[in-house]
Hints:
It is a single chain. This protein is an alpha/beta fold. It has two domains: 2-97 and 187-203, ATPase, nucleotide binding domain (Nucleotidyltransferase, domain 5), CATH 3.30.420; 98-183, Nucleotidyltransferase, domain 5. It is 26% helix and 29% strand. The protein has five helices and ten strands. The chain has a five-stranded mixed beta sheet with strand order 3-2-1-4-5, with helices on both faces. Helix 1 (37-52) packs across helix 2 (71-88). The protein starts with a strand and ends in a 33-residue tail after the last helix.
Amino acid sequence: MLILAIDTALEACAAGVLDTSSASVIAQQSLAMKRGHAEALVPLIAQVMAQSGVDYAALDRIAVTTGPGSFTGLRVGLSAARGIGLAADKPVVGLSTLAAYAAPLVSDNTGTPIIAAIDARHDHLYYQVIAGDGTTLLRPRVAPLDEVFDALEHGAPRLVGNAAALLAQRWPADAPPPLSVLDAPAPDIAWVGWLGAAVSPGSAPARPFYLRAPDAKPQSSPLRFAPQPPA
């Protein structure tokens, strides 16, 4: 199976082509960025596809992160994935950013719980608690940072996500320390591809997964007499 993976949910603009038959990512690129995904993504995808030597028509599906993450970044990635899927007549699958963060730790088969955490700002986190075998112990949610420590009832965890270091810094002194801390600005694009290969298109829709309303919202209606952008 050939999968084009796309991630613009957080502080990276990334794409890669996974070939499951050879168990390898045959081309990938990732640019660190907080803004500018809209300008960077399409050229980056074109470069990755050229490097892979794979034609869009040869892809089996497109996988894209759906959030939680940046409101603007998510729209950019999802729009690109849907556009490619429509043009190439290929299915598009959506994957939680938290699941993409946790996937490499689940693959280690250590059996210890995982807390995948993303900075939601204002001292809040998006997080999910996952058993070592990949079973969900606590569904994705947004909560004050200190509330995350309630998950310690599942045992000393491994931490992953762009808020992993923040969690470790605030760790209760009387609690068993985390077993590992993997702080990364964005998920590994290879694991976005592997998750995209594992899910069913019917059960993994490519639509935004926000957990809460975005801080910035488009106007519901334009101001009177305001010029309208071209269609």
